[in-house]
Write a structure and sequence with these properties.
By secondary structure, this protein is mainly alpha-helical. It has 2 domains: about 15-105, no CATH class; about 110-190, no CATH class. It is about 70% helix and about 5% strand. The protein has a two-stranded antiparallel ribbon. It is elongated and about 110 Å long. The relative contact order is 0.06.
C-alpha cells in the first residue's frame, strides 16, 4: 500500500482512554514509513501532551497498557483488511478501466448518423411504453407537465440540443413522408 505521510487509508480512527484523572483522545493515522511502534507513538503523544499542558503524567497500569495493546492489535487488523480491500478494488478498477477503453474503441467504429437513426427508430416506441407505464403507476396523479419536464431533462442528459431536436423532428417528418409515399405507391400498384 503506497501512502504519503499525510495520507490515511480511511477516515481517521480514534482511541479514547482514561488514564488516572485524564481522558485522552488519540487520533490514529497509519503510515508505511513509520519507524516507531504504535505503542511507542502513543506513549510519546501522552508524554508530549502532559508536557505542553503542564499536567502530571500518571504511569499506566498493566491492565491499561493491555487495553492499549488490544486497541493497537485491532487497528493493525483493520489496516490489514484495508490493504486487502485496496488491492481488491485496484483490480476491479483496472478491469473497469479496461472495459471502458474497449467500449471507447468500439464506439469509435460506429457512425454517429447510424446511432442517431437507431435512436430515432427506438425512441417513439419507448416513449409510448414509458408514458403508459407512468400513467398506470400514478393513476390520477399523472401530470403531463411533469412528463414534459422529464423529457426536457432527458434531452439535457443525452446532450440533445435544440438544433439537434429540430433536426430529429425533420428526420422524423421525412421518414413519415417517405413511408406515406411508399404506401401510396403500393396502393396504386394494387389497384
Amino acid at each position: 500500500m503506497n501512502l504519503n505521510k499525510n495520507q490515511t487509508t480511511e477516515q481517521p480512527q480514534y482511541i479514547y482512554r482514561r488514564i488516572g484523572g485524564t481522558s485522552y483522545k488519540v487520533k490514529v493515522v497509519f503510515s508505511g514509513e513509520a519507524q516507531e511502534t504504535m505503542e511507542d507513538k502513543i506513549l510519546r503523544m501522552i508524554r508530549n501532551s502532559s508536557d505542553t499542558n503542564g499536567e502530571i503524567c500518571d504511569i499506566m497500569s498493566p491492565s491499561q497498557m493491555g487495553d492499549v495493546k488490544k486497541d493497537i492489535a485491532t487497528m493493525e487488523a483493520a489496516l490489514k483488511k484495508l490493504d486487502e480491500q485496496e488491492s481488491k478494488y485496484s483490480v476491479e478498477l483496472e478491469s473497469a478501466l479496461q472495459q471502458y477503453r474497449e467500449l471507447q474503441a468500439q464506439a469509435a467504429e460506429f457512425d454517429a448518423g447510424e446511432l442517431t437513426d437507431a435512436r430515432l427508430e427506438l425512441r417513439p416506441g419507448m416513449d409510448c411504453t414509458t408514458i403508459s407505464r407512468i400513467q398506470n403507476a400514478y393513476g390520477t396523479q399523472y401530470s403531463p407537465f411533469t412528463m414534459a419536464e422529464a423529457r426536457r431533462d432527458l434531452s439535457k442528459m443525452l446532450d440533445e440540443h435544440e438544433e439537434e431536436t429540430r433536426s430529429i423532428r425533420e428526420r422524423l417528418r421525412k421518414q413519415q413522408q417517405e413511408q406515406t409515399a411508399s404506401r401510396k405507391k403500393e396502393r396504386d400498384r394494387v389497384r
